[in-house]
Design brief:
heterodimer, A: about 400 residues, Rossmann fold, 5-stranded parallel β-sheet, 15 strands, B: about 300 residues, mainly alpha, two-stranded antiparallel sheet, 4 strands, globular
């Protein structure tokens, strides 16, 4: 009895502490001192490659800005939190960043499920949040303080559907998606919609759950359906194994994927089994443009590895934020929100970034071929209304194209 | 037809691993009436020991010799881990109620998992591909049905290990002692059997089998992480209960049945509108049905509770 009382008391005490913390919180609009930017990501969980790459990109961008004198004379200070790749932890660490560290802006997350858990906290506190690479459309629909610098899944799914139908001439496709991931489910639906509009048929739909180790049941069912391509919009951990088991079942159809495949560990898990597969991604590390060459060289000399797309997006998210703070002339949250929303043709390493009316970035995607543990540039696919060179932007970027009129596939 | 045969091969392949782990559950239960919940984590320790050995000794290239070295090495390390767990966690509390030992088992399980997460992180790692299966064409049986080298090796090694176990338990003096301890610990002690040593040995054998399961499964699913033992361990436990906990052939049968059931749910479920994610639910639904209909399991015998 005594112990129960003690336990109850300590819990109450804990809550009181939290309550005080919250009341003390809120944004300080002070115009001097460092600009506090909260970065949260998965640094130790199942998708920690994503969080680590993004963090590298964010820190490199912040250092470059600080070396050049900061923004309006103020230095940028990054406060990093690890959410272990779990949505509830993402919400917790973002609450901490907002209430305890009193950050002026937030950068994160990679995985859409985690961004979706954290975004309401940022919106509630009116702290602008830029997700570097969450592609699920729902993320920025949380509210007017939530932005992203990457394209969204309707477009990414459409890109792969177009590539499969137009470039690979695929007629029959199977889909193997991660049942519990907002990202994977989103891509699955958008690929399916676009691919059927382009005249193809989805003949087998299978799912798995993150952490599954055996996919032979699903793959055998897919093999029996006799398909031209298999769309696997998952994350690298499972995809590497899926590629392996696909080959062990003697399936020859190539696997198609999205930016969730982009991690060094993919090659260790899948190796030669990945040869001939394709993914859509945000940028190509082989791009010859001077801006990307400089970014790749700087990143390599700093971290000793090639920057993946997540590192590039992390870098761009920090640069876009700094640009907006500069234009907003400070960190007042409403002004900063408006400045981010007005971002237009910002020259990022992942392409020109324009924020549209839905707070999403409008930009092209690249298709990369997997060969001998490398991503080889294959083609660039532009959204509707955006043609090279980047001119006008349309606000409804990614509505699936009617079959015949797509300008896609241009190199 | 070839799809059915293929699903059967897939299912038995998964089931063979469950069977190897289930053997450890069933042996420990047979002797101590203890559900060793840390057993799934020993399976994980086995896989990681293999991984670290391969990294340490530079055994990355495809080679059957490397696989054998890693397999035997990790079985030995896991046997040691099993004995340490028994000696320092279970033996001191053995004299208390069974509930105490059970809670201890859960504690040990959480300790091992979090120790690994804290030291090496939860990110999945890629187990070396010793069989060269990444760049290999499977052996075609008929129609589309095919079997890969990894699957053949998993089968052969699992069956060999199970036969060795059968031989130890029924043909050797140690095995006789194990059966005696399982029958009645106190009487066995009175007959001059060193029961502590026999219990320790049981943990060693069970843990070694789990480690073999860990290394073998990594040849087919190279993605290993510190929490890989939780679900697999639970399913192996279900397999042991299904077969009749305490019964060695039962554990093997249970493992193969659970593996096959899971694979068929995944393979054919989508035809009748069952998402493949129900595979885990099916394993536990089987557990519930077994407990309701035949609590002693398929091959288990109803033994009178000792007084």
């Amino acid at each position: 009895m005594k112990r129960t009382l003690l336990a109850l008391l300590s819990i109450t005490a804990l809550f009181t502490v939290f309550a005080c913390e919250r009341r003390g919180g809120g944004t300080s609009g002070d115009a001097s001192g460092p600009i506090l930017v909260g970065y949260y990501g998965d640094l130790s969980g199942r998708t920690s490659s994503f969080g680590q790459s993004t963090k590298n990109g964010v820190e490199m961008a912040a250092d470059e800005i600080n070396k050049a004198g900061g923004v309006k004379g103020r230095q940028i200070q990054i406060i990093t939190e690890d959410d272990q790749g779990e949505p509830n932890k993402a919400a917790t660490v973002v609450t901490k960043l907002i209430n305890q560290d009193r950050v002026h802006a937030l950068l994160g997350e990679v995985a859409s499920s985690n961004s979706l858990a954290a975004a309401p906290k940022a919106q509630e506190a009116k702290i602008p949040m830029i997700s570097p690479s969450s592609t699920n459309p729902a993320v920025t629909q949380v509210g007017d303080y939530i932005f992203r610098v990457c394209f969204i899944d309707p477009f990414q799914g459409e890109v792969m559907a177009k590539f499969a139908a137009n470039n690979l001439k695929a007629k029959r496709a199977a889909i193997l998606y991660d049942f519990n991931s907002d990202y994977s489910r989103g891509l699955y639906q958008f690929f399916k919609r676009s691919f059927t509009q382009l005249g193809g048929a989805i003949v087998s739909e299978q799912s798995y759950t993150q952490g599954d180790r055996d996919f032979s049941g699903q793959l055998t069912a897919i093999r029996a359906a006799n398909v031209d391509v298999i769309y696997v919009p998952g994350y690298y951990g499972e995809v590497g194994v899926i590629a392996n088991q696909t080959k062990q079942l003697g399936i020859k159809a190539p696997l198609l994927g999205g930016d969730g495949w982009d991690a060094p560990q993919l090659w260790q898990l899948g190796g030669a089994a990945l040869n001939g597969d394709y993914i859509s991604n945000h940028y190509s590390v082989d791009d010859p443009s001077p801006a990307i060459r400089k970014f790749v060289a700087d990143y390599q000399s700093r971290y000793n590895i090639l920057p993946d797309a997540l590192a590039a997006l992390g870098y761009d998210s920090m640069k876009v934020l700094a640009d907006a703070i500069n234009r907003a002339d400070g960190t007042d949250s409403a002004k900063l929100r408006d400045a981010i929303a007005q971002t237009k043709n910002f020259p990022g390493v992942t392409g020109q970034i324009t924020i549209d009316g839905d707070r999403n970035a409008v930009k092209p995607a690249v298709v990369l071929k997997l060969q001998d543990s490398k991503f080889v540039y294959e083609t660039t696919i532009y959204p509707e209304g955006l043609t090279p060179p980047v001119g006008t932007t349309s606000s409804s970027s990614a509505s699936p194209a009617p079959p015949a009129t797509s300008p896609a596939g241009a190199n | 037809m070839d799809t059915f045969v293929q699903q059967l091969i897939n299912g038995l392949n998964v089931g063979a691993i469950y069977a190897l782990i289930a053997l450890g559950y069933t042996m420990v239960y047979g002797i101590l009436r203890l559900i060793n919940f840390a057993h799934g984590d020993v399976y994980m320790v086995g896989a990681f020991t293999g991984y670290f050995m391969a990294v340490q000794f530079g055994l990355g290239a495809p080679s059957l010799v490397s696989l054998s070295i890693v397999l035997i090495g990790s079985m030995m390390v896991a046997a040691l881990v099993g004995m340490i767990i028994e000696r320092f966690a279970y033996r001191p509390v053995r004299k208390y109620s069974r509930m105490t030992t059970l809670i201890m088992a859960i504690g040990v399980s959480l300790l091992i998992e979090n120790l690994y997460v804290a030291t090496i992180g939860a990110a999945p790692r890629a187990f070396p591909d010793f069989l060269g299966s990444q760049s290999q064409v499977p052996i075609r049986l008929f129609g589309n049905a095919a079997i890969s080298k990894a699957q053949i090796i998993i089968f052969l090694v699992s069956v060999a290990l199970m036969l060795v176990l059968q031989w130890i338990v029924f043909k050797t003096k140690v095995g006789t002692a194990m059966r005696a301890v399982s029958f009645n610990l106190n009487s066995a002690k009175l007959m001059g059997i060193n029961t502590d040593a026999i219990i320790s040995l049981t943990f060693a054998i069970g843990s070694a089998l789990a480690a073999a399961g860990g290394v073998l499964t990594a040849q087919y699913n190279p993605n290993i992480d510190p929490l890989m033992g939780i679900l697999t361990g639970l399913k192996a436990f279900v397999a042991a209960v299904l077969g009749g906990i305490g019964n060695i052939p039962g554990a093997v049968l249970g493992g193969l049945l659970i593996g096959a059931a899971e694979t068929f749910v995944v393979g054919y479920g989508s035809n009748i509108g069952i998402a493949s994610t129900y595979r885990d639910a099916v394993a536990f639904a089987i557990l519930i049905v077994v407990l309701l209909v035949r609590p002693s399991g398929l091959l288990g015998s109803t033994v009178q509770e000792k007084v």
